[in-house]
């Protein structure tokens, strides 16, 4: 496909193939302390996998139709599902041709019964005059479960589910009358607890039209019942070109135990971390997009340089020592107070995969953490909109810390060590 690709890149073919080979060959993973490399196919979840799957299917379909002595009258493809129209005596020969293209890709065949053949969520019905009609289709094993009306989701998403289901049944069902379609729609939506009045309201409203004016930018915010809808409404009234989509904390991944090997804290990336001073209550808050281990190596290197220069006879006030203060607030505290930090035992206080959000989280934690050695300029880019909320969090932490200290003192007084 290089002839189709070359117009979209300045990379030459050799380098392009090297990059693709590297991306595909980098599918390695760790399971139970052993490392594995994928030798066939592409990794599930990789952004490259669906693109390559579509390219492979297009290539296989082109080679199979070229090699077949008998060409189907019609071929339609959706990902790895094919719909073919051919004579019934040609089915086995065409299936064998498709299965001979690649030993790892084998197709199964489903033929029409009584002039009916399901394809995806469509039932294709062949008429006696050769014409075709369709009907909405669900597999016999389908549970019929969709987004439940009482689920913890925004109301606009539930309304979209109703609208989309009605629209799909209307478009795909050419054999059912309007009344039969309404009965089918009521049956499926009622099983998912949608009120009958809501269903009737959507059934009798005029067909919706697509809104040509779409927001220029979308932002994702966690869904909080009552709050998220108000934020979305305010942004809509302010005529800002920002669309809001909601994210959820209680996902299936949080309900089931993670089957993957746990990643140690030092091997985690995109984290906000905290390092405590060994000689005083001070702490240092930092962030890194690389492995936390590598960031600790950097801090330790600065401390080692300080120790080496001190061992060479330099004093803390010498220029050779003072110039190290520019490295970070951590090493500056080490020089000014002659203290040392517990670099070998950092703690992760927050994590995210969004680089911009990581910077905001770091500034928030610096603001809400007492006794930080960080520079005041480290929070200059933090919006003042967070000030009141962060002040409340900081006060609550201080109150909890004071309460915990009082309780510990009482325990020590009540139970003195013999």
UniProtKB/TrEMBL annotation:
Pfam family, one: HTH_animal
Compositional bias segments (type: Basic and acidic residues): 409-418
Annotated ranges, domain Reverse transcriptase: 1-141
Domain of life from the UniProt record: Eukaryota
Region of interest: Disordered: 396-418
InterPro entries in UniProt: HTH_animal, RT_dom
Protein name: Reverse transcriptase domain-containing protein
Organism, as annotated: Aedes albopictus
